[in-house]
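Narrative of accomplishments. A recurring question from our advisory board has been how the design workflow behaves on a single, concrete structure rather than in aggregate. To address it, we present the structure tokens for one chain from the evaluation set, followed by the sequence designed for it. No filtering or post-editing was applied between the two.
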């Protein structure tokens, strides 16, 4: 199943790349005046993605420009029928206007002069991102009049829009009898897929609609995602195949929401448009009740490497239960184990404390007192279907029973928070009323600790609204109640004023991550465990998810279950995100001055972008004048979010800057320049620098690194045609690699012999025999290590001939040494002695 999910996403990614290339090809041919060739590529584009109206529109225009007006109008009718049948859409106004101009004969070739967007490094013209799409369809009323049908659908459509918006969804289109929306756009959210399914449940329950939900990689351009593709088509297909009041989700979405919802697999799957094999689909039954990743997990991995922090929390608890209230802020990166640590503490305190948990969400950052209200809704027993009168009765009853002394004032102040009927009262300034409200809420909270000590947990304080933080400050400064208040937050979060003790969670050590991985997936090989440890950077969640993915896919990329988290972290940088993506092309750690030269920003704008990236925790200061991404997976996510042509442009720009302004760095680290030229598509130039990098490594006896550099150059050469331009560089690389293989594996290395033999073949027509000397010498060394044959003596004679013609003293010494060695083993000791004495005489 993991492989099927990966394969579906990979197919979509490659499909998007191909569509981008076809679009660029037809635009290039059109600009050069070859509209016939442009038409061919536009046809191919539409064949692959017939639901892309922009592509259809270009094909219609090109047909008309080629004098095929009838064919253009026929294509328009086919497009209109397809959009209506498969997506329930009408053609866009732009398409209709184009057709009118074609019919009127007003279409001019000048319209086609739109040049493809050239990606400028540092500008996010387009990006790849994981989105969750929701499509809902309503039953069309049994009414004949189209106007009456449209009127009947207005109310359910508006209600659906309100539900989707409440769950942070982004409305894309109001369809014929439904709505298309996406989640995780324009800003990514860590729970986008869960929010989409929650919205779907509300739509199903309130409107009895058919709903489809699917998650996939989409190219977003500007302010809107490119939704006219297979991801949208499959989402609509799910909705079309769902019965009324039913939610169907794809396998990809099911992986993202696993544990949070009860789902049942559809037995025969669904036939996906354009694919022979049905894909798995799931029916959503209900929410499971799990509020966190820990609650949704089938089983928890053991707590590793947090014993000292757990002892600290136990110490704070002992102080709190004696009446000295404590407030503690637990800080750490996403996935580092803050919630897992609290889960362990709760398990140890089971029965000794009353636990109340508050949770903050990004969608409620500006909703005053949202976590506090959720707490009291739970205490009062509010239900989703309660009327205002019912809520008021429950709130009044709770206050009278548990907080008799404050009941009257509390009821007066709390009523407006739930929009309950308010009784007339004396005029009061808003600020004074808020102070009284916060004071009462603190008293109500502290009253919860009267029968038993209270453990109050507030998760994800970095998303906390200002009013709740104000309430927490007042509560924390009243230390008379037996309450331990624990807050969790990301490293960038700061309390002002600082009223809490700080426990900073550091990344786990390599040994601890290895222990965690082996607990979770003990059947992984040592090599895979080492790979996970090196990429996880001490973050337990990343290690666990990569271990889960490695069991089926090998774990070469960040697992799908981490994509939402990583993209959300990147989106937190807002306007500085393009700079982060450009920096990702430089690597995990990079020189600030190099990035400054590469980035197309004014000095002040660049400094501002770097400050934002550091303040959001995406970048951390390194040694000297360097910065580093806080985690390898963040750097990978920033890099892969860019289309291939954008990444290539960035690498070419970096290579240019390195050569022009950082000559010493380019000379000392030729492999860095080679990597950027390789990724930038400059194949031949990259080969030369891989050769130089390998030679530099040989001088430092770094033979394994040298072999890797030479092999990188050879693999690049395979992309070039087998001609004279390729033969010279390959000869040098094969010869150099053969020498390194001898150093690594010994004189008898079969690998060395293979590389030297290939080099000798390439050099059979070489104009400069001196270039062949190390090749022949390598072959001679390989023959010597086996047994004495005629071949090594022949090779020694060849060495002597080359040395004589090249007049190189180093060649002469090596040739005499080879001759002497062979003659000695052939028992021709007098001749051997003469050659070896010549070698000795060459040294002072």
């Amino acid at each position: 199943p993991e492989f099927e999910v990966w394969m579906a996403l990979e197919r979509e990614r490659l499909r998007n790349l191909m569509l981008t290339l076809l679009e660029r090809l037809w635009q290039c041919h059109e600009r050069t005046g070859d509209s016939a060739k442009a038409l061919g590529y536009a046809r191919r584009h539409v064949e692959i993605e017939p639901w892309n109206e922009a592509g259809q529109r270009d094909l219609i225009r090109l047909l008309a420009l080629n004098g095929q007006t009838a064919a253009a109008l026929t294509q328009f009718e086919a497009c209109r029928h397809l959009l209506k049948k498969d997506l329930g859409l009408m053609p866009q106004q732009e398409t209709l206007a184009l057709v009118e101009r074609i019919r009127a004969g007003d279409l001019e070739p000048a319209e086609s002069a739109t040049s493809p967007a050239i990606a400028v490094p540092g500008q996010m013209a387009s990006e790849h991102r994981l989105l969750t799409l929701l499509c809902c369809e309503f039953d069309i009323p049994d009414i004949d009049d189209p106007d009456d049908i449209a009127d009947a659908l207005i109310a359910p459509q508006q209600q659906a829009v309100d539900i989707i918006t409440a769950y942070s969804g982004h409305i894309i289109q109001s369809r014929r009898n439904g709505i298309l929306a996406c989640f995780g756009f324009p800003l990514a959210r860590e729970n986008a897929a869960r929010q989409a399914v929650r919205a779907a449940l509300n739509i199903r329950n309130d409107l009895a609609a058919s709903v489809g939900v699917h998650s996939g990689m989409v190219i977003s351009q500007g302010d809107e995602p490119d939704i006219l593709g297979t991801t949208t088509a499959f989402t609509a297909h799910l909705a079309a195949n769902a019965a009324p009041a039913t939610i169907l989700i794809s396998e990809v979405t099911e992986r993202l929401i696993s544990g949070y919802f009860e789902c049942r697999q559809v037995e025969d799957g669904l036939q996906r448009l354009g694919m022979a094999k049905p894909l798995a689909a799931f029916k959503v039954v209900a929410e499971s009740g799990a509020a966190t990743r820990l609650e949704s997990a089938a089983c928890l991995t053991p707590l590793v490497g947090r014993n000292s922090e757990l002892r600290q929390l136990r110490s704070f608890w002992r102080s709190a239960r004696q009446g000295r209230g404590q407030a503690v802020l637990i800080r750490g990166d996403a996935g580092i184990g803050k919630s897992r640590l609290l889960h362990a503490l709760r398990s140890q305190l089971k029965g000794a404390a009353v636990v109340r948990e508050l949770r903050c969400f990004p969608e409620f950052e500006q909703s005053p007192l949202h976590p506090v209200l959720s707490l009291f809704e739970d205490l009062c027993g509010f239900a989703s279907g309660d009327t205002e009168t019912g809520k008021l009765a429950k709130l009044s009853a709770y206050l009278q029973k548990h907080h008799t002394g404050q009941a009257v004032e509390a009821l007066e102040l709390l009523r407006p928070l739930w929009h309950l009927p308010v009784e007339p009262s004396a005029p009061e300034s808003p600020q004074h009323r808020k102070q009284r409200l916060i004071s009462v809420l603190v008293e109500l909270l502290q009253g919860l600790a009267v029968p038993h000590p209270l453990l109050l947990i507030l998760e994800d304080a970095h998303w906390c609204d200002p009013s709740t933080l104000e309430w927490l400050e007042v509560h924390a400064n009243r230390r008379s109640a037996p309450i331990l208040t624990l807050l969790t937050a990301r490293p960038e979060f700061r309390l002002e004023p600082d009223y809490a003790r700080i426990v900073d969670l550091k990344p786990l050590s390599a040994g601890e991550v290895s222990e965690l991985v082996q607990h979770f997936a003990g059947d992984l090989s040592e090599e895979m465990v080492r790979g996970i440890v090196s990429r996880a950077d001490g973050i337990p969640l990343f290690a666990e998810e990569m271990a889960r993915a490695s069991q089926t896919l090998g774990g070469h990329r960040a697992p799908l279950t981490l994509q939402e988290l990583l993209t959300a972290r990147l989106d937190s940088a807002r306007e500085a995100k393009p700079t982060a993506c450009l920096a990702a092309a430089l690597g995990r750690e990079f020189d600030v001055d190099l990035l400054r030269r590469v980035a197309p920003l004014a000095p002040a704008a660049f400094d501002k972008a770097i400050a934002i990236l550091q303040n959001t925790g995406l970048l951390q200061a390194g040694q000297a004048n360097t910065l580093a991404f806080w985690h390898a997976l963040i750097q990978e996510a920033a890099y892969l979010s860019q289309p291939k042509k954008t990444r290539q442009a960035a690498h070419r720009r970096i290579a240019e800057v390195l050569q022009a302004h950082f000559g010493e760095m380019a000379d000392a680290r030729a492999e860095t320049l080679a990597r950027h030229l390789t990724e930038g598509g400059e194949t031949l130039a990259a080969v030369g620098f891989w050769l130089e990098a390998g030679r530099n490594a040989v001088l430092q006896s770094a033979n394994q690194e040298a072999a890797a550099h030479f092999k990188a150059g050879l693999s690049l050469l395979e992309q070039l045609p087998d001609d004279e331009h390729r033969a010279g560089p390959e000869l040098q690389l094969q010869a150099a690699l053969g020498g390194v293989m001898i150093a690594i594996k010994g004189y008898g290395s079969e690998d060395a012999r293979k590389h030297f033999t290939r080099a000798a073949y390439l050099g059979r027509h070489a104009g400069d025999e001196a270039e062949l000397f190390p090749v022949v010498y390598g072959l001679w060394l390989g023959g010597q290590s086996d047994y004495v044959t005629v071949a090594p003596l022949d090779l020694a004679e060849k060495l002597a001939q080359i040395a004589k013609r090249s007049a190189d003293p180093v060649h002469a010494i090596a040739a005499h040494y080879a001759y002497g060695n062979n003659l000695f083993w052939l028992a021709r000791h007098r001749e051997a002695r003469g050659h070896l004495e010549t070698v000795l005489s060459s040294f002072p």
